[in-house]
Amino acid sequence: MARIAWLIPRLIKGSGGIRTMLQHAKGLEQGGYQCDLYIEGTGDEKQAVELVHRMFGYVFSSLHYGWDRITPADAVVATIWYSAVIVRDLPFACRKIYFVQDYEAWFNPMGDTYLMAENSYRCGLTPITIGRWLSYELHRRFDLDAFHYDFGADSSIYKPAPDTQREFAICFLYQPEKPRRCARIGIDALGIVKSIMPEVKIYFFGSNERGHVWFNHQNLGLLGLRECNDLYNRCAIGLCLSSSNPSRVPFEMMAAGLPVVELWRENSLYDFPPEAVSLSEPNSESLAEAILRLLNDAKSREAMGKAGSRYMSERSLSREISQFSEAVDRVLKGLAPVADSVQGTLYDRAPVKAGEHLRPLPADVGRMINRPPNAYVNSIHPVLRRLITFGARFARRMLEAR
User: What are the pLDDT digits (tens) for 232-261?
Assistant: First the structure.
């Protein structure tokens, strides 16, 4: 029985990335592997099993804290950029895997951390990526070949509910703590929609942060998995934005039969089917155009919902886990990924651009969507602004301390 060690980042409630790591570790265990999980940082190992179960619903018998005492294993899995160098430098022989869920360099401003994150792809580990775009990107940027698998959805949870009456409503994955989720652009797009169609309901979900939202909406906060499916089945459109690798949320929306609106960028062209997802230029006006087109076309919404459900019916979570496990098995056998295995994009339509559905906006709406990001900070009294700046610099130095 092969032994697989996982380096798991600090546990964060509601983290889809950590949930995916645990799903695949559990899938390996169910396939006959022994998985040892090493959680970043310190903690009470006696309570670790209960903590992971409470936060994510999975039970593992071998849970440890710290990445400084990894015991020999047949393979070790890096899961975040700064764990790659630790796996590279392990003092024992093993297969070294890099489970890549996003292009993490983009999580940082250009500088030291950005370059260090990019260097993680130069550590000689074998990547396994979620989705096709990341595999393409690693080959293009680093001439690094990767195994990849498809985004899946748990069909026992995410599925159409024919008896549920859909509201004239939009649900928006709102995660302001993650810049890649483009909360500002999403808020402004929905603000435009609300100013033109005040009757539409807008639900935010995915974070307990409230933020500054300038129109009427309901923030549902962090939801359980089945609560998410209920939300997807009672809304007309799902809005989920990512400026890096797609979230798995739009795939779960599709599985529930919900039409999806996303950003048209290279990162979204390799994994989204054009029949079920509408991609717009990455600005609030074009997103609003895409949403308004669908709100005004019930037949298109119905067709997209059916297409999404049909597409995801062949991409279950069990299939995703099986694809990942097959990739791990190939690594253990010493097999290399197929060179440049991703050929061509899946999405073949032009982006939606702001157009006929956007009548001249009221002046106050125009001011809101065009305000600079630092508008609020600039309105604060200079003394208080200096105190805030000092506090931010102090916090940054503390985070950088070694």
Answer: 999 999 999 999 999 999 999 999 999 999
Say if residue 198 is in the same domain as residue 302.
Answer: yes
Whole-angstrom distance, CA of residue 380 vs CA of residue 370: 19
Residue 66 near residue 38 (C-beta atoms within 8 A)? yes
Distance between CA 55 and CA 39 in Å, rounded? Answer: 14
- Among residues 69, 103, 81, 115, the alpha carbon closest in space to that of 9 is found at 81
What is residue 269's DSSP assignment?
A: T
* CA distances in angstroms from 332 to 84, 100, 101, 326, 392, listed in the order given: 18, 18, 20, 10, 46
Statement to judge: residues 183 and 104 lie in one domain: no
Q: What are the phi and psi torsion angles at 36 (to 5°)?
A: -110, 120
Rounded Cα distance between 395 and 401, Å, is: 10
Q: Which structural domain range is residue 179 located in?
A: 169-315
* CA separation for the pair 156, 205 (Å, rounded): 21
- Identify the three-state secondary structure at position 204: strand
- In this structure, the answer to whether residues 201 and 280 fall within a common structural domain is yes
pTM of this prediction? 0.91
Looking at the structure, tell me whether residues 74 and 182 fall in a common domain: no
* Together in a domain, 119 and 180: no
Taking the CA atoms of 112, 13, 60 and 159 in sequence, report the sign of the dihedral they define: negative
> Exposed (0-12), middle (13-18) or buried (19+): which is 398, by Cβ within 10 Å?
exposed
Q: Dihedral of the CA atoms 310, 316, 320, 323 (nearest 10)? A: -80
Say how many domains are in the chain: 3
Quick one: pLDDT at residue 374? 65
Cβ atoms of 212 and 376 within 8 Å: the answer is yes
Q: How many CB atoms lie within 10 A of CB 224?
A: 11
What ranges in 219-362 are assigned the alpha helix state H? 225-234, 249-255, 284-295, 298-312, 317-332
